[in-house]
Amino acid sequence: MRIKEGFDPTRPDLHLGHTVQFNKLRQLQDLGHHIIFLIGDFTGMIGDPTGRNVTRPPLSRDELDANAKTYTDQVFLILDRDRTEVAFNSKWLSALGSDGMIRLASRYTVARMLERDDFATRYREGQPIAVHEFLYPLAQGYDSVALHADVELGGTDQKFNLLVGRDLQRQHGQEPQCILTLPLLEGLDGVNKMSKSLDNYIAITEAPGEMFGKLMSISDTLMWRYYELLSFRPLDEIAKLKQECESGRNPRDAKVMLGQEIVARFHSSKAAEAALAEFEARFRDHAQPENMPELTIATGGKRLALPQLCKQAGLTASTSEALRLIEQRGLKIDGDVVADKTLALAAGRTYVVQAGKRKFARVTLT
What we know:
This protein is an alpha/beta fold. Helix content is 47%, strand content 15%.
């Protein structure tokens, strides 16, 4: 069977949430089916409105091309490069032209579009819906026509779009595709789906220690969801492990096993062991990691405000985030908790700065 799944390159990195679907594609690939990894370089310029309560701003061609390059580099950490067809939907959607897009739009009614939950909610609440957003499900559906797909995979939030593909295939005289929806993985917050825009993600190319540390930070409850959707262990083995934890075994043991499995998958068993050792040294023995970023910041001999240092060192995204960390007693200098928001560090010295539980940097001020 020809099995497709499309991903719009809206962000540069793939994360563990994406791998729920990639792992299923690999299983189908190993069963002998033809897998099509579709990059939505055209649909990405429209912007998928799925799950949005506001209009998503379209991305530029340069942004999409740069992100698409990282997708094709990273997806083969899971899929077999030699047995995967990589396609770009700009090939046929750009070729439609304005007249072809108008004909495509004529195949669906506004009433049908408003059956979609997010559109219906926004319409009911008086939130704007741009006309171009209606084109997104049609463009995604036309991908299935162009590729003669037998099966399309997607997250549970993509059900409407996948069904549009069936309708368009039927209208073009093709056998309608079967659709297979997969659960969405919650992010580190345990509430929202994993997303880079919400900063609750674990990228599949993250350093072993960072990946392991993030997995160890999830709640004991969320851990079982991650086991179900990410682990390759048999379900009966996971059920037994869960029962052991409910009967008194430390859930940390199970979390360590999960963290090592995921790190070994994207790095190596040796890297997984090293990540565990570093984690235990850092959090159990309160030691600093052996390897951390080192950088020099020129201050002209003047003192530098700590929030500004954190921003320039890449430890926080902004000075306001650094100030929040100080309020939460989450910022340390040379192992000591910082309580003074106005602290400024003198030039001519090197400091070990820790932001939160996992971010460290050795900073020299000159």
